[in-house]
Design brief:
By secondary structure, the chain is α/β, with parallel strands linked by helices. The chain is built from ten helices and eleven strands.
C-alpha cells in the first residue's frame, strides 16, 4: 500500500521540527536508523524527495513542506477524532484546542470567550499563542497544522480554509496625549495584514508621511507613541491597552475598517468541541 502510516507521518513532522534525523529520533524515542528507514519509506510512497540530508541536518524540499503540512493536519484530525469519540461516549469533552491570534485580540477579546467556553467544557484546555498577522501569519499556522483555529484580519490570503467575519473596527490615529498638532508628527509604521482597500486609502492620504520608525507589533508602536516618538495609525482595539499618554482621534469620513474573523479547516470545523469554540467567538463584541 502507498498510504503513509501514522508513525511515518510523525517522523515527517519530527524531522521537519528538529531539522535533523538524529534529533527527530530522540524526540520520538527511536533510533536514527529507524527514523531514516521511515523517512525513506515515506519518500518511496510519495514518489518524491521530501528532505535534503547532509552534515548540516535535514531540510524539507518544496514537496516535503507540502507533505509535512498535510501530516500535521492528519495527525491532528486523528487526535480530534479520539476526542470527539470520547465526548460522544462519555458525554464530556477532554483534550486541547490550539488557538492562534494577533496580540490585541489575545489581550482584549479572548479572555471572555475562554471563560464562557470553559464553563461549557471544563476539561478542555485552550492553548493560546500570539502570532504576528503578517504574510501567511495566523492563517498559515492553521493551514500548516500548527493551530486549529485562528483569529485573523480578513481577507485571508491562504487557500483551503474556512473563514467567517466576526466584526469590523475603524482605524484611528494614535498620538502623544496633549500634542497640539498630531498630524505634523513623524509616523511610526507597523507591519500587519490589511485589506487592499485599507492600503489604497493610506496611500491616498497626502498628510501621512513615510514612516521614520518601523516595528512589527502594534503594542510596540503604542509604547513609542506614548514616549512622544510620533504617531501611528492602528485599529481601535490596538489602542485599548495603550499607555495613559496615548490619545486617539478618528481619521474622518471614508477611513478604512479592519475586518476581523476566524479561520479553521473544513475538517476541524466538523468537530463538536471546536464548533462550540467557534460559537463563542461569534459572540465577540469589541
Amino acid at each position: 500500500m502507498n498510504d503513509l502510516s501514522a508513525a511515518e507521518l510523525r517522523v515527517l513532522v519530527a524531522v521537519d521540527g528538529e531539522g535533523s534525523v538524529s534529533r527527530a529520533g530522540v524526540r520520538l524515542g527511536l533510533t536514527q536508523s529507524a527514523v531514516s528507514h521511515a523517512l525513506r519509506a515515506a519518500e518511496r510512497k510519495m514518489g518524491a524527495v521530501l528532505f535534503r540530508r547532509g552534515r548540516g541536518g535535514a531540510t524539507a524540499t518544496a514537496a516535503g513542506s507540502a507533505a509535512v503540512g498535510h501530516a500535521r493536519r492528519i495527525l491532528r484530525l486523528m487526535e480530534v477524532m479520539r476526542t470527539d469519540t470520547h465526548t460522544a461516549a462519555r458525554g464530556e469533552a477532554t483534550g486541547t484546542i490550539r488557538l492562534a491570534a494577533f496580540r490585541s485580540a489575545a489581550f482584549h477579546l479572548l479572555p471572555g470567550v475562554l471563560v464562557r467556553f470553559g464553563r461549557r467544557h471544563p476539561r478542555v484546555t485552550v492553548d493560546v499563542r500570539i502570532v504576528p498577522d503578517l504574510g501567511r501569519g495566523i492563517a498559515g499556522e492553521v493551514a500548516d497544522g500548527r493551530a486549529d483555529v485562528g483569529v485573523v484580519s480578513l481577507p485571508v490570503y491562504v487557500d483551503g480554509l474556512v473563514s467567517k467575519k466576526l466584526y469590523a473596527e475603524p482605524y484611528v490615529l494614535a498620538y502623544p496625549s496633549g500634542h497640539p498638532d498630531p498630524r505634523a508628527l513623524p509616523m511610526i509604521d507597523w507591519h500587519e495584514n490589511c485589506s487592499g482597500e485599507t492600503k489604497r486609502w493610506l496611500a491616498a492620504q497626502a498628510w501621512i508621511p513615510s514612516g521614520d520608525i518601523t516595528v512589527e507589533d502594534d503594542g510596540v508602536a503604542m509604547s513609542m507613541v506614548g514616549h512622544g516618538l510620533g504617531t501611528a495609525i492602528v485599529p481601535r482595539l490596538s489602542a485599548a491597552g495603550a499607555p495613559p499618554k496615548v490619545a486617539t482621534e478618528e481619521l474622518g469620513e471614508g477611513a478604512p475598517l479592519r475586518q476581523v474573523g476566524y479561520v479553521t479547516t473544513r475538517e476541524l470545523a466538523g468537530s463538536s468541541v471546536i464548533r462550540d469554540l467557534l460559537t463563542e467567538l461569534r459572540t465577540i463584541r469589541p
